[in-house]
Amino acid sequence: MASTSPQQSVQAGKSNTSTIPADRQYPKISKVKSTYMEIDFFKNADLHTGYFCYNCLYFVKPNHCAIVRDEGQDVNGRQSGVIAPHGVCQLWEENPKEAR
Phi first, then psi: what are they for 33, rounded to 5°? Predict the structure, then answer.
């Protein structure tokens, strides 16, 4: 069976739970490599609109990501230990179940 990357499966319209194989632990990338940052101004905003982690296909509620590590510094040098719903990064893919 041919293996597909999460990106290829997302483009095919499948959800991230069916695209990331669960047969082993896959390495996640750092917050810096993903250009992740938290934007506190939007902490209490409607996160269903915009490019926030909350409505990203890879976001795992309440505060994790399927492809970015929780720990480590973000691009602004901050360490929160979570992937915040009001965070953003360059790997964002729309989650049609959350986005408005």
Answer: -60, -30
